[in-house]
Amino acid sequence: MENQMQEKASKAKAASVLLANVSTDAKDKALEAMAQALEKNKQIIFDANQKDLDAAAAMIEKGDMSAALYDRLKLSDAKFKDMVSGIRDVAKLEDPVGKTLSTLVLDDGLTLYQVSCPIGVIGVIFEARPDVVPQVMSLCLKSGNATIFKGGSEAKNSNRALFDVLTDAMKTIPEIPVGAFQLAESREDVAEMLKLDQYIDLLIPRGSNDFVKYIQDNTRISVLGHTSGICHAYVAESANLDTAYTVCLDSKIQYPAACNAIETLLVDDKIAEKFLPEMCRIYQNNGVELRFDDASYKIAEAAGIPDLKKAADEDWDTEYNDLILSIKIVGNVDEAIEHINKHGSHHTDVILSTDQKEIDKFAGLVDSSSVMINASSRFADGFRYGKGAEVGISTNKIHSRGPVGMEGLMIYKYILSGSGHVVKDYVGDSAKPYKHEKTQEKYCRLQ
Amino acid sequence: MENQMQEKASKAKAASVLLANVSTDAKDKALEAMAQALEKNKQIIFDANQKDLDAAAAMIEKGDMSAALYDRLKLSDAKFKDMVSGIRDVAKLEDPVGKTLSTLVLDDGLTLYQVSCPIGVIGVIFEARPDVVPQVMSLCLKSGNATIFKGGSEAKNSNRALFDVLTDAMKTIPEIPVGAFQLAESREDVAEMLKLDQYIDLLIPRGSNDFVKYIQDNTRISVLGHTSGICHAYVAESANLDTAYTVCLDSKIQYPAACNAIETLLVDDKIAEKFLPEMCRIYQNNGVELRFDDASYKIAEAAGIPDLKKAADEDWDTEYNDLILSIKIVGNVDEAIEHINKHGSHHTDVILSTDQKEIDKFAGLVDSSSVMINASSRFADGFRYGKGAEVGISTNKIHSRGPVGMEGLMIYKYILSGSGHVVKDYVGDSAKPYKHEKTQEKYCRLQ
């Protein structure tokens, strides 16, 4: 197994250098060929998916698979249409490779260009969703990154069919190097992939919190992702109450299973009696179970809110992923910030306020990848952030943070162009000075 | 020990949120206070350094320390002056915090700002050089990053004296949060630091290759650095020979112990007989030991070059850090690229050529952080690249690559400003469309 996985990774690495230099035109042609191949081979893909579904149905009967997983596994006509249009959307995105990010004249005839380039080899490890294959493959192709896919065994046939159709289509464009995309299929492959830091430059795990955490804990390779989304909304004294009702409701119920839904509502004690009873009624009318701290419990009780439940200590650190919300009273914005930085997951947090000074403090001191001012936490998403396509949401503090688009798959190299310039002329007593003049000149390569 | 280290890290983490929001003015005042405090307390610092030097002298006598390490440890008047002016140089650098990196109007009144912010807590682990303390502390302060220093025990007294003088000076500026900078002193602290991924966001090790490799292998925290510098120069058939002689010499001998000095010279076989004999003479006149592959050996032998030595297989993977160079003949630029990507350390590689097509191929396909075109490898350096100060040289493929300045200590957060905007209005059959219009508007906070 190790040798097989290593061989795949080594092939991807070798192809990655070539893929990094393929022209935009060839990449876009390959993407169109991929979209057409999917359309042409729809039946093959659905047949393969049916095999996976049959096996999954047997597992559900034995209690070994959830209905939710079955839904994610199942290809529909709508999902298939989205797959195809998703590939064409990526073809429309600007090519991120070879952009001159900065240019600095060090001295006459000695110019330093910082030029964007792909990271190299991306490892994508994902669970049931077969739609990950076309989505990630198109993003990685356009950004010039070789990719190793490892899908869940429950989607084995679907993944293989999609992978074969897509890579066969790519082969019709001779500029695309063979071997840039690899599919790993055995269960042991995951453990092997995690060891291959000499070949794989970045891992993108997609799946449950536990799954991502397992990956993070067992590899030296950089991981782009997030393990949990414990998001908050804080309602300040100065909040516009109608805005607060609307935003706090949407942040919880618009899609409660998403990582960017809120789990805890923090309310300033000076507004709590005015705001909280109506907010509780709105939540309860929308089927949200509420868990109160002592202070908010009293307010809710006095207002005659039914079905009161106290929050336990662990509630403040829990991602419900469900129609459940914990509620806590805080003394001011500082207490809210402290609670969020301590209990949150540095993902997305919301302030409802009309006081600019307070808003600035919250936006500055809350250490999260997205801070929402009078807007729903649910906006924290690659598509909504205008990225065209989302690679993932990162709670890392380096490289990429928050919703990550194709830019998260890019790095840069420095190209210094001279005509015999040597360092010895720039050191010592008669050292020439550096000019260090920024210019707008672009690095141009012949093509 | 664990509790003490954890406590320091926890204090730094708590202070980091505040430090991220300190005004430019307060940070620059603190830097000036630090520079003045160094000048005022020069004697205290030299006395502490003398203690370390006395202990080091005893170790040298016992053969437990090298003379080179002693030199790095020793503060001189010149080094001290550089320390002080280095702090004032950082004060002059533009504040990298709070820059609006991009602005996107998602819809009327709903604007997404991407704003630069510090990474958080940096862990700096370094060997003998006490001058690391003021240099890194000033960079981290200006960039708003809390920092934990762990220096080598051989510089214990110097580090403590510098750390105390500098942090005392900072305390005169009330806006700087206490506890943002921490000094760890015991040997066990390194192992503890490596475990503290809940507090430390980035590690910057400075020291030998083995030291950096040890850090990389024993932590989940992201590491900025490089373990080795196996750099190459490739002389193409089209090379201007005078340029090639000059650049290849400087790349080797200008400072052979540096990571950006070349270790291997690759020569196109079509130019080798013309180029190599004179190049060998130049190298030998400058004290460089040469190790030849079979083909270059024959050419050198035929030209009557003395002291011929064959390169062994391991030479191609060796960083000599010394006046030694291995030489190999290659058939064309493709073979050169293949050799470099296989044996190099993705650090810095040079092409000598006048053929633009060949240069483009080399610059595109060599997978290194710096590619030099007709210029010395020794230019790959933060100061020479105009960064004002160098945090390190990175061979990572994510976040920062090549010589890294203060920008390597930065990340960003997204701030979405709305007025009650909710996601439910943008989904479903009657979904409002997103505008996704880029603007030049900056995120402004009151101050």
Percent strand of chain A equals 15-25%
**Cα end-to-end separation of chain A:** 41 Å
Quote the CATH topology of the largest domain in chain A: Aldehyde Dehydrogenase, Chain A, domain 1
Strand order of the largest sheet of chain A: 9-10-8-7-11-12
Per DSSP E runs of 2 or more residues, the count of β-strands of chain A stands at 16
Range of helix content of chain A? 25-40%
The profile of the biggest β sheet of chain A is:
6 strands, parallel
Low-pLDDT segments, ≥5 res of chain A: none
Computed over alpha carbons, the radius of gyration of chain A is 26 Å
* Number of domain units of chain A: 2
Tell me the greatest interface: A-B, 77 and 78 residues
Question: According to CATH, what is the class of the largest domain in chain A?
Answer: Alpha Beta
Number of helices, counting only DSSP H or I runs of 4 residues or more of chain A:
14
Q: Spell out the CATH superfamily of the largest domain in chain A.
A: Aldehyde Dehydrogenase, Chain A, domain 1
Apparent shape of chain A = globular
What structural class is derived from the secondary structure elements of chain A?
Answer: alpha/beta
Mean of residue pLDDT values of chain A = 95
What order do the helices and strands of chain A follow? HHHHHEEEHEHEHEHEHEHEHEHEHEEEEE
| Oligomer state of the chains in this structure | homodimer
CATH architecture of the largest domain in chain A: 3-Layer(aba) Sandwich
Domain Aldehyde dehydrogenase (chains A, B): 3-283
GO molecular function (chains A, B): glutamate-5-semialdehyde dehydrogenase activity; NADP binding
Pfam families (chains A, B): Aldedh (PF00171)
Main location (chains A, B): cytoplasm
